[in-house]
Structures are given as structure tokens and as C-alpha cells.
Amino acid sequence: MISIAERLALKEEALERKFDNFAFELRCCSPGIIDSFDEEKQTVRVQLAIKEYIRCGAKEFLDEHGDNVAAIPVPILVDVPICIPSAGGFSLTLPIKAGDECLVVFGDTCMDNWWEFGCPEADLWPLGEPATQKSLRRHNLSDGFAILGVKSQPNVIENYSTD
């Protein structure tokens, strides 16, 4: 017979496993390397610079990797909007090149409608009516923004001016 303490431990372990799986799927940000830049759309293709640990119990995965956890490169992210200093009708443009480093920040919600239409109904709300999510996805690879200028230690700015 299982004691109450053992039953509670099993429930606690199951709950802990659920939180671990949730955290495994949550995306916030990751360093990346620019693959290419589209100056008309002002988007980049980005390869995340860190392999992601994937947990999978499928037989094919186990056969290939020998374990249910393996570090795998994330596929290249496409059409990632760039973040550059811009306000008041002025923008700082940069000669973005393949190999430049960046930080990809993943949005909390699906950004598709905002990305395509902005906040279209300005007369309904002082700043425009907020866009409606097109999908229920959250922290998804499809909703990243590339912040330029982030540097790894081998690529820090030489002779950085402090004045």
C-alpha cells in the first residue's frame, strides 16, 4: 500500500515535471548570427547562436541521439524584424551584414497582425486600436525581433571610446 506521503510526492513530482516541460518550451531571448538582411522589408534571417536542448521520447530521436535529450541547432529564423534606434521621424541606419551578431527577443504573443497592419484604427484609440492576435501562440520562434549591436567577447568593439 502507498502511504499518503508517497502519494503526495508522486503528485509533487508530476507537477514539477509539468513546470519543467513548460520552461523547456518558453522562449525569451537568444543571441543570434545574421545570415542575410533584406533592406526593403528591414528584416533579417538569423541563426540562433546556441544549440537548443530538445527533449523527445520518439524512437527515431532516441536511435539518432542515444538519449531523450540532445543539443540541436534551431532552424534559421526568417523575416525577423530589426530593432534600430528610431524616433521622432529620425532613424539610425546600419550597414547590416551576414555574420553580424544580434539578440533575438521573442514576443509574448503572436505579432502577425501588428506586423502587417500596425495599429490601424487611430480614431478609436489615441494611439491606434491595438492589433488582435492572429493566433494563440506565445513565445514562438515566429515572433522574434533582432536587436543589433549585441556582441560576444571575441567580437567586442576595439578601441571602445568612453567619451
State the separation between the terminal residues, measured CA to CA: 73 Å
Integer-rounded radius of gyration: 21 Å
Give the low-pLDDT segments.
none
Give the fraction of residues assigned to helices. 10-25%
- Strand line-up in the sheet with most strands: 1-2-5-9-8
Count the beta strands. Answer: 9
Backbone shape: extended
What's the rounded overall pLDDT mean?
84
By secondary-structure content and strand pairing, the structural class works out as alpha+beta
Strand content: 25-35%
Alpha plus pi helix count: 3
Query: What is the string of SSEs from the N terminus onward?
Result: HEEEHEEEEEHE
The main β sheet shows up as: 5 strands, mixed, barrel
Give the secondary structure arrangement, pairings included.
Blueprint: H1 4-25, E1 29-38, E2 43-48, E3 52-55, H2 59-65, E4 69-72, E5 77-83, E6 86-87, E7 90-91, E8 101-106, H3 112-117, E9 144-148
Parallel strand pairs: 5-9
Antiparallel strand pairs: 1-2, 1-8, 2-5, 3-4, 6-7, 8-9
